[in-house]
Amino acid sequence: MTKFLNVHDILKSSLSNGPFERYCIWLQGCNKKCVGCFNPESHDPNKKNKIKISTIIDDIISVKDKIEGITISGGEPLLQLKGLIKMLSTLKEITNLGIILLTGFDINELISLNKYRTLVKLTDCIIYGPFLLEKKVNYGLVGSSNKKVFLSTERYNEDLIISSPISELIIDSTGTICISGVEPSIFSKGYIK
Questions:
Q1: Distance (Å, rounded) from C-alpha 24 to C-alpha 185?
Q2: DSSP per-residue codes, the chain
């Protein structure tokens, strides 16, 4: 049984990675190579930052009263499907947090997964499809207009997903600056001063 996830980064509180305040996990490793990807540092599967699934779950539990849900992205999270299913199963059993999953898999790749039905039962929303630079949009979580929003529960609606802020600038109590969202480069392009 898988005990670890290879994690690119974790953000314990975000307002730009889905509706409401969210705990965000970006998994390491992606084979999609989408031109213009906002997170190319997360692609290399050989970059290792293995964290115990139980440690991630404990961390989420420690902030569960401050967040509405969890957003999982990457990299490509479905390349770590066994560990992802294990984590989501446990979280669904012990919390009432909403789960949003972003994947570059297209619908055929998704439904061909042997754990597809399980994945659908464990998530409230799956945003799927490769990022296409020529169809890039500057709203919501989708990134490009070809991506699809699949709502497996009534917890969220497409308007909530589409109206999520595209980026945020977070300065913590130590002065550390974090830029997050599906268009984090907005802060380096002079759009906001």
A1: 18
A2: ---EEEEEEEEEEESSSSSSSEEEEEES--S---TT-S-GGG--TTS--EEEHHHHHHHHHHHTTT-SEEEEEES-GGGGHHHHHHHHHHHHHH---EEEEEE---HHHHHTSTTHHHHHHH-SEEEES---GGGB-SSTTTSBTT-EEEESSSS--HHHHHTS-S-EEEE-TT--EEEESS-GGGGTTTS--
β-pairing, 98-103 vs 50-52, is unpaired
Per-residue buried b or exposed e for 166-182, using 16+ beta carbons within 10 Å of the residue's own CB: bbbeeeeeeeeeeebbb
The yes-or-no verdict on residue 152 having pLDDT over 90 is: yes
- Within a domain: 189: no
The more confident residue out of 140 and 83 is: 83
Q: What is the CATH number of the domain that holds 152?
A: 3.20.20.70
Please state, rounded to an integer, the average pLDDT across all residues of the chain. 89
In terms of residue numbers, what domain contains 50? 4-167
Q: Is residue 175 part of a domain?
A: no
